[in-house]
Amino acid sequence: MNLIRDDILSYREMCDAENVQTLQRGMNFRLNPKYSVILMSQRTNAPYKDKIYSDGITIEYEGHDVSKRSYDHFPKLEDQPEKLPSGKLTQNGLFIKSVIDFKNNDKGPEIIKVYEKIMPGVWSLKGFFDLIDYKILHDGERNVYRFILRLKNNVDFETNYQIIELQHNRIIPSEVKKEVWKRDGGKCVICKETKNLHFDHELPFSKGGTSLTAKNVRLLCMKHNLQKSAKIE
Ligand SMILES: [Zn+2]
Predict the structure, then answer these.
(1) Residues of the chain with CATH 2.30.280.10
(2) How far does the centroid of ligand 1 lie from the alpha carbon of residue 221, in Å?
(3) Going by CATH, does the domain composed of 8-167 fall within 2.60.120.480?
(4) How far is the CA of 9 from the centre of ligand 1 (A)?
(5) Residue 164: count of CB within 10 angstroms of its CB
(6) pLDDT per residue over 53-101, tens digit each?
(7) Pick from 160, 155, 167: which is nearest to 57 by CA?
């Protein structure tokens, strides 16, 4: 399956795209030999939403809590762990290590493929990102990790190909996607198709369009999305 940024897919299609039976965890270090996978999912009332920097191409992603071992155990009150009690690195730890390796050696940044949950059963590819940094913040209760991801300029894998001109692109916030999905009823706005949908910028960013409100974003099926790209070129 050739996915491009802002494509919409079911949970099953997402698992198939990654060649796995299920995707349970939010952070999946090196799920693929070439990249890691992050699932962003916004709970209602989430205290923290994916934060997009004003450059429009950088996001901050919160690390993972300690796993819930018993009912009298409160992961939200404990520091996010870098290691398990055994000393083995957690997913946080693996991501941190790749940042440190990136900064110390001449190793390239870890490539992160990010999917976001729009609604139950409705996912969207947020894009491929470079994991460029992390920080530790105190959220009032405990220490949490924030990973800094920057949209990749150019992705050229065997199965996934996309060229992004960064200055002409901006990340569409998950909140906006959610609003657009609801407004357009999960259908292409032109032909009402419900499969192979894509979040489309009606007026491209390069022509003054914005990704920051639902007004300029709509659902298009693959056919109508391709027709539109052909017209612009
Ligand atoms: Zn259509």
Answers:
(1) 8-167
(2) 4
(3) no
(4) 16
(5) 17
(6) 888 899 999 999 988 776 677 888 999 999 998 999 999 999 999 999 9
(7) 167
